[in-house]
Amino acid sequence: MTLNKRKTEERIFKFLMMASTVIVTGSLLVIIGTIVVKSLPALRLTMLTQTPKGGYYLGKEGGILNAIVGSLYLASGATLLAVLVSLPIVLYLNLYTKKASALATFTRFSLDVLWGIPSIVYGAFGFIVMMTLGLRASLLAGIFIVGLLELPIMARAMDEVIRLIPQALIDASYSLGATKLETALKVIVKQSLPGILTAVLIAFGRGIGDAASVIFTAGFTDSIPTSLLQPAATLPLAIFYQLGSPLLEVQQRAYASAAILTLIILAISLISRVLIKKFTRHTIR
Amino acid sequence: MDFPTHLRIQNLSVSYGDHLALKDVSLDVPDKKITVIIGPSGCGKTTLLKSLNRLLDSVDGVKIRGNIFVDDEDIYDPRVEVTHIRKKMGLLSQKPQVLPMSVFDNIAYGPKIHGTSDRKKLSRIVERELRAAGLWDEVKDRLHEPASQLSVGQQQRLCLARGLAVEPEIILGDEPTSALDPQSSRIVEQRLIELKSDYTVIVVTHILRQGRRIADYLAFLYLGELVEHGPAEEVFAHPKDPRTRAYLTGEIS
């Protein structure tokens, strides 16, 4: 190929790469911009401090405190549940099974399939189980289903970071006479803590932002739940119901709710970044 | 057998899938001496070393036949506790591999998992082993800083101190100076020579000059086969096997 042709090729591909980058960052800006502009008429402090007045579908007064609190409860509970199951899975996969074993391969495949299942299916599945058991929509049911939804995301993300730990580091711990469990808890978790926290955060973000899985399981309510057995409102559903309202003022409140949800996720990302920095003083790079 | 030994390798064969990495190796390792295993890369040196503390266990598709006796205990006997075997051997790897914790905790890690929880006792162990590894003066003011901030040469001596802290009988070095600069290499070699009064040392290396500097006993591995072994001076001066001669003169590498 002549030099000119190669140069043209270089230019075309560089342009395509830049264009893709602009599309990504541009969409983020456009989405946030839309939310902010559309929410401005409805964005008031009372949105954060009060529960809805006049119903979530038609009410123009009050706020969405019920959904903020409900979402935080629900996503925190679900994330905690997912951590308690994910961490043992990934430590087992990486320390107790051989890398190419059928069990490990099958487990990873199962997690990938679970990851791909649409969240509405999780919701429907949860609903069937609840019907069979005679349970009503509740915060607890929502926590279980969202926990299940977060599980494969969290476990696979943790698995990817723990798989990257050099065998030599694991061997170093073994050669001091450490058991697999001691190595897992004192060396592996410590070394991969930033990655583990990131995995937790990704899963939390997915959990707090999902509407379809909670619509039948956690239900919706105008009040703040005071027990695990009461239904709980969530922000994505608040947005969904308010957007569906025929009243313009209520639609604007949907955008305000979206802005609040985005801000919550942003705040949690920032806080966890600071925490990760603090926790990783000893990590070997 | 004309020397005391508590580490005996008998008819050891190791294969990875179809590849035979060690072929029927038998070797008695002399106590409180430095035994150097030399040979070109890929000859099975690291496999031999890792079979001694059973780190081979975690390798996929590995098959081990034969016996290794440490203090007359067959380490591959299923009734033997693997952590008990590993505690008897300190390992220095090719690249120093510090644990993701402070200098102090790197050394205290071993004693802690083996049951020492008294802080004062741990401090004494840390100081004693850092002195033994010749690192104390350099790090005594930064014991609680991350170990990863030490230089590579310091990290390797930290790994040595960490291995010593579990009171092993045997020190295994897997090309322990290959990632170090010449000066740090000399320091580590010097430490190994000093440590042989208390420990049995086995070092794998492909650096012939290093073998000449530190070896008391020499074993030459070639293509998975233990070609020749004996007192280092003898083997270096009068190699019996033509392959050993060829390796020592640089004809094969």
Task: Describe it.
The complex is a heterodimer of chains A (285) and B (253). Helices cover 73% and strands 1% of the residues of chain A. Chain A is mostly helical. Chain A has two domains: 1-39; 45-279, MetI-like fold, CATH 1.10.3720.10. Chain B is of the alpha/beta class and 253 residues long. Helix content of chain B is 36%, strand content 27%. Chain B has ten helices and ten strands. In chain B, the strands form two sheets. In chain B, strands 6-7-8-3-9-10 form a six-stranded mixed beta sheet, sandwiched between helices. Chain B has a four-stranded antiparallel beta sheet with strand order 2-1-4-5, covered by helices on one side. The longest helix of chain B is centred in the middle third of the chain and has 14 residues, at 119-132.
Strand content of chain A: under 5%
Which CATH first-tier class of the largest domain in chain A would you pick?
Mainly Alpha
Largest sheet of chain B: 6 strands, mixed
Interface with most residues? A-B, 27 and 33 residues
Task: Tell me the Rg of chain A in angstroms.
Answer: 23 Å
Helix and strand sequence of chain A:
HHEEHHHHHHHHH
Based on CA inertia axes, which overall geometry of chain A fits?
globular
Q: How many distinct beta strands of chain B?
A: 10
What is the overall pLDDT average of chain A? 92
CATH topology of the largest domain in chain A: MetI-like fold
- Chain oligomer state: heterodimer
Shape of chain B: globular
Quick check: average pLDDT of chain B? 91
- Helices of chain A, by number, come to 11
Percentage of residues in strands of chain B = 25-35%
SS class of chain B: alpha/beta
